[in-house]
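Fill in residues.
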């Protein structure tokens, strides 16, 4: 059993509240830019600390005027936007518990969350969200208010105009470190999702220890800033939000993923936040463009040089003169253009939510944008471990965040302890009891190893380990990560539990499929279903499978694959909010395809 911990850099006072940053920043530096808000024309307006305090207090007064009391639960269902951050801090200023609902949630899921928390009100962004919640309005006996952000927010603020700042200040003091700040529901691939009770202490422990510790370098970048486009319903985005405001990092919002690149271009962040799939998309898009322009060989050589350059950095001996010269050439021809696509100022990136392919990690570090990969769960208020820009091991998820202890159990499961771990699941004593060992360690459900320097490597998910008919234990994660790095592959799921060999379901990326067809002379209107057995497509996917298989033993390798005629999406219910595959859902929906792998 191996254990590793790093002492905390910040202790949270018992009276602390996550909302304290609003008044503190406004008092200390009222004219400092705290956030930026995107205008209709795509430009960005600065929001100072004083302006943010005024916006937060105005909404907080509106909540008081509406009769929202300390401890009440108020939900929000919205894409990432400035108003969400204002709402979070306004709610915390008046002792309210925030209940986020994913914008991809079904009516049944939303009803469950609103019912389980006995939410008194909900903010929704769109008419569709209003209609979705309205389907169960007659059954939501505790729900008094359903507010549309763009319609009712102004009226709510106007209603609270007569309430004094002193009332808000008094209400803020009703919440303390141990008080609930937000209830975040897990994705729940099976059964009812569980509500994680995240306290003010949880939020402050992580945010303050992160910016004083592993993310200190990002906060110290010149005019440090970032654009939040991850869903704020997810714990990763919420903790980044809190960390940015605590650390003085300028925060912008962009909730439309299709507008991400234009937003990065206009905002020009000093570091980028994303899940691995976004970095894979940036890489694949650049690769596809280079191939389409007849520069595929140059691009692939540039990739090899960037990877070699990064690997030499990690080895500690530095790149050879030849690699350095090639790197300098490709920096002008290739790498600079990729950095420009990220806004031109990005000096680093932060990735979470799923495993990042080591090759992608080496590539981005090699072009001058090291990706800081971390690991955590909703139950740990996001990061348990994280790499540092100046000290990282690609392929690992870094060392424990200050204040966190990690232990590897005898069966390989990662156990965690620290003040970032939630105290309980909302109204679910049995789930809380099952989540902890008798001596108080949280059971993550993930399998991993800790090296001699305390770097954590995730090797699989305990519940996702496949056991073949021959008794071989196979973790699907590594194979899936390697496959998704291929520009033609959108999603995949490795299968084979109880079977004589390992197989894979693979979906084709719609953005790269068209250019691929054109390049190989395939009919423009041909669908994936039409070309599923096409020798060229099969050969391309087989090449990706061969690459993935090179990372594992023969017993763990993929012997057969099946190309599906659709994709896995959040809207379809096959992907979680952090873009991870929901195995049980896919296994049920694609049972015939899985059977076909093992019966033909």
């Amino acid at each position: 059993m191996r254990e590793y911990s790093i002492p905390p850099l910040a202790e949270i006072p018992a009276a602390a509240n996550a909302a304290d940053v609003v008044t503190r920043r406004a008092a200390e530096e009222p004219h400092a830019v705290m956030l930026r808000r995107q205008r209709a024309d795509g430009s960005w307006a600065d929001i100072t600390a004083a302006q943010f305090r005024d916006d937060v207090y105005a909404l907080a007064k509106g909540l008081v005027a509406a009769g929202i009391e300390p401890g009440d639960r108020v939900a929000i269902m919205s894409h990432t936007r400035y108003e969400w951050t204002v709402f979070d801090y306004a709610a915390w200023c008046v002792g309210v518990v925030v209940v986020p609902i994913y914008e991809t949630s079904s009516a049944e899921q939303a009803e469950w969350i609103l019912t389980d928390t006995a939410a008194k009100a909900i903010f929704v962004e769109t008419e569709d969200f209003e209609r979705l919640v309205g389907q169960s309005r007659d059954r939501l006996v505790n729900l008094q208010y359903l507010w549309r952000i763009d319609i009712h927010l102004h009226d709510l603020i106007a209603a609270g105009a007569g309430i004094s700042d002193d009332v808000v200040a008094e209400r803020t003091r009703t919440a303390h470190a141990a008080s609930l700040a937000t209830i975040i529901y897990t994705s729940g691939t099976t059964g009812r999702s569980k509500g994680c009770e995240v306290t003010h202490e949880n939020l402050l422990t992580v945010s303050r220890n992160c910016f004083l510790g592993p993310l200190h370098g990002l906060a110290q970048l010149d005019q440090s800033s970032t654009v939040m486009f991850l869903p704020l319903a997810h714990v990763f985005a919420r903790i980044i939000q809190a960390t940015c405001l605590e650390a003085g990092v300028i925060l912008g919002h962009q909730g439309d993923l299709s507008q991400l690149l234009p937003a990065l271009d206009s905002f020009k962040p000093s570091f980028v936040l994303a899940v691995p799939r976004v970095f894979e998309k940036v890489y694949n898009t650049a690769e596809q463009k280079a191939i389409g322009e007849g520069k595929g060989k140059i691009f692939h050589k540039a990739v090899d040089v960037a990877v070699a350059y990064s690997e030499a950095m990690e080895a500690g001996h530095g790149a050879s003169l030849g690699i350095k010269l090639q790197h300098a050439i490709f920096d002008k021809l290739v790498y600079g253009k990729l950095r420009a696509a990220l806004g031109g100022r990005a000096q680093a990136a932060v990735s979470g939510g799923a495993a990042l392919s080591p090759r992608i990690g080496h590539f981005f570090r090699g072009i001058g944008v090291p990706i800081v990969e971390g690991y955590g769960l909703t139950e740990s208020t996001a990061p348990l471990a994280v790499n540092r820009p100046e000290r990282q091991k690609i392929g690992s998820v870094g060392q424990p965040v200050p204040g966190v202890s990690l232990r590897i159990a005898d069966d390989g499961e990662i156990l965690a302890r620290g003040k970032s771990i939630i105290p309980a699941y909302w109204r679910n004593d049995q789930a809380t009891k099952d989540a902890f060992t008798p001596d108080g360690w949280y059971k993550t459900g993930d399998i991993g190893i800790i090296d001699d320097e305390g770097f954590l490597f995730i090797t699989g998910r305990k519940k996702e380990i496949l056991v073949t008919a021959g008794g071989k234990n196979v973790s699907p994660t590594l194979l899936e990560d390697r496959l998704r790095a291929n520009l033609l592959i959108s999603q995949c799921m490795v299968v084979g539990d109880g079977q004589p060999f390992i197989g894979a379901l693979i979906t084709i990326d719609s953005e790269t499929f068209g250019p691929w067809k054109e390049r190989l002379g395939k009919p423009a209107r041909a669908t994936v279903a039409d070309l599923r057995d096409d020798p060229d497509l099969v050969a391309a996917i087989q090449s990706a499978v061969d690459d993935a298989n090179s990372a594992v033993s023969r017993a763990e390798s993929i012997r057969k694959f099946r190309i599906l005629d659709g994709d896995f999406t959040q809207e379809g219910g096959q992907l979680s909010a952090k873009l991870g595959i929901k195995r049980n859902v896919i296994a049920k929906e694609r049972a015939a395809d899985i059977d076909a792998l093992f019966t033909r």
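Residues 494 and 504 are 4 Å apart (CA to CA).
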